Amino acid sequence: MALRLRFVSLVFLAVGMAVGPAAAQDDDPAAITVSGKGSVTAQPDRAVVRFGVVTRAESAEEARTQNATAAQTAMNAVRDLDVPEERMRMESLRLQPQYEYNDEKNRRELMGYKATRQVVAELDRLKVLPPLVAGVVEGGANQLDGIDYQLRDRSQVRNDALRKAARAAEEKGRLLAETLDAQLGPVQAINEQNVDRVRPQPRASRMEMTKASDAAQAEPEAYAAGEIEVSARVQVVFQLRTD
């Protein structure tokens, strides 16, 4: 008799273990996971300008000396536009030998040296950008290496993009739920996926300074900043109500 009771207890225990997880699973509320994207555009109010100073000479020392003089003159041209000293700098100097292949002697021959340095200016007044380019070319720089438009305060634009993304996710979730005869419930989880920025590039970027100077004088809109687009993506998990 005791053996039979023990067998019956084991049977009920096994049934309870099999039914328990299924019952718990039925208690889990239905959910829907959706993603949303939001984009916001803003006018840049800051620019980082990089000028290249390239000099060539027969000796390394002569190339270095000429480069130092030209770079310093270019820095003075930036100062003339009242750019603060802490907003300008010179990058490290690169000195490279220049070779040319001699077909008659069937070998490379040293033709001289090239010195390269970047002058960087950070501008908080974009209206001075065209005269800056036009002036720096007269000060020794001979290449425009790039203009990076930026926002001094990115937090507000980023937050606006996130709000748009969250509202887009909610709208998508509500549409899907109502289509399937359900209602959107409370939020279970929110995940920020990424925030991207698309920076405008001027048409005059990466050109010889003589051409850049002509563009700055004759066509200032070549340096028009345009707009910076900030986009955000979020993933939201909502409960579903089917009653």
Describe the SSE topology.
Layout: H1 2-27, E1 31-42, E2 46-57, H2 60-79, E3 88-90, E4 94-102, E5 107-123, H3 129-138, E6 143-150, H4 155-179, E7 183-198, E8 207-208, H5 209-218, E9 228-241
Helix pairs in contact: 2-3, 3-5
Architecture overview:
This protein has 2 domains: 109 residues, 2-Layer Sandwich (Translation Initiation Factor IF3); 105 residues, Alpha-Beta Plaits, CATH 3.30.70.2970. A hairpin with a 4-residue loop joins strand 4 and strand 5. It is an alpha+beta fold and 243 residues long. It has 5 helices and 9 strands, in the order H-E-E-H-E-E-E-H-E-H-E-E-H-E. The radius of gyration is 33 Å and the shape is elongated. Helix 2 packs antiparallel against helix 3 and helix 3 packs across helix 5. The strands form 2 sheets. Strands 2, 3, 4, 5, 6 and 8 form a 6-stranded antiparallel sheet that branches. A 3-stranded antiparallel sheet has the order 1-9-7. The longest helix has 26 residues. The protein is 37% helix and 38% strand.
Summarize this structure briefly:
With 243 residues, the protein is an alpha+beta fold. The chain has helices at residues 2-27, 60-79, 129-138, 155-179, 209-218, and strands spanning 31-42, 46-57, 88-90, 94-102, 107-123, 143-150, 183-198, 207-208, 228-241.
Q: CATH homologous superfamily of the largest domain?
A: Protein of unknown function (DUF541), domain 1
Query: Proportion of β residues?
Result: 35-45%
CATH class of the largest domain: Alpha Beta
Instruction: Let me know the average pLDDT.
Output: 81
Rg: 33 Å
CATH architecture tag of the largest domain:
2-Layer Sandwich
Compressed to H and E, one letter per element, the order equals HEEHEEEHEHEEHE
Number of helices: 5
Q: What is the name of the CATH topology of the largest domain? A: Translation Initiation Factor IF3
Taking the alpha carbons of the first and last residues, their distance comes to: 50 Å
